[in-house]
Design goal:
Subcellular location: Cell membrane
Pfam families: Gly_transporter
Number of strands: 0
Distance between the termini: 53 Å
Transmembrane segments: 6-22, 29-49, 61-78, 90-109, 115-135, 147-164, 170-188
Order of helices and strands: HHHHHHHH
Strand content: under 5%
Domain Glycine transporter: 4-78, 90-164
Largest sheet: none
Shape: globular
Protein name: Trimeric intracellular cation channel family protein
Structural class: mainly alpha
Helix content: over 70%
Length: 202
């Protein structure tokens, strides 16, 4: 279940990165690079921080194949996709949800405390998107316009952490945590929810 969720997150994040490349009119190599950065970046950062060396998504060929497939799918079929930005947001929300729960679960398996595990779940979810946006010349979503992005990932990770600490963790909990994150992110997009920010003094 962990592997399936992880590879699912790699694919949908890879697809979101590839679609950004398509929108920026990159060539096929540029699209594949963005797909790889988006799909694998957060997991690499997570594994390095918890001491899983080499990172699992670089040691296992499946983790390298999946974002490449996502990039090729976007490159081949993008003329049939309309309203690309909308699809990017959908796929990004799906990847966010999958990665926040797998990141938190792996951190817990490595013995991290609940707070650290929740934060690493969030970092796993947002890391690839940050790399994608920086390389594509965009302001990262995690800091753009006070969007509910990292907060949604943290909420999904907390579902996993609480269930783990109370002895209720099961595969369905990971799915539920991902669902909480995805729902929060999509509702935030739909209703323009924003995280409160400090007002600068006049």
């Amino acid at each position: 279940m962990q592997l399936a969720l992880d590879l699912g997150g790699v694919f949908v994040f890879g697809l979101s990165g590839a679609l950004v490349g398509v929108r920026n009119r990159l060539d096929v190599l540029g699209i594949l690079m963005l797909a790889g950065l988006t799909g694998l970046g957060g997991g690499v950062v997570r594994d390095v921080l918890i001491g899983s060396v080499p990172p699992a998504n670089l040691a296992d060929w499946r983790y390298l194949l999946v974002p490449a497939l996502a990039g090729l799918v976007a490159f081949r079929f993008h003329p049939r996709l309309s309203r690309i930005e909308r699809y990017i947001n959908w796929f990004d929300a799906l990847g966010l949800g999958l990665f926040c729960v797998t990141g938190a679960a792996k951190a817990l398996q490595f013995g991290l405390n609940p707070v650290a595990a929740a934060l690493l779940g969030m970092l796993t979810a947002v890391g690839g998107g940050i790399l994608r946006d920086v390389v594509a010349g965009r302001t990262p979503l995690v800091i753009r316009n006070d969007e509910v992005y990292a907060l949604a990932a943290l909420a999904g990770a907390c579902v996993v952490v609480v269930a783990w600490e109370t002895g209720w963790y099961a595969p369905w909990v990971a799915v539920a945590g991902a669902g909480v994150c995805i729902a929060l992110r999509l509702l935030a997009i739909r209703y323009s929810w924003r995280v409160p920010r400090a007002q600068s003094p006049d």
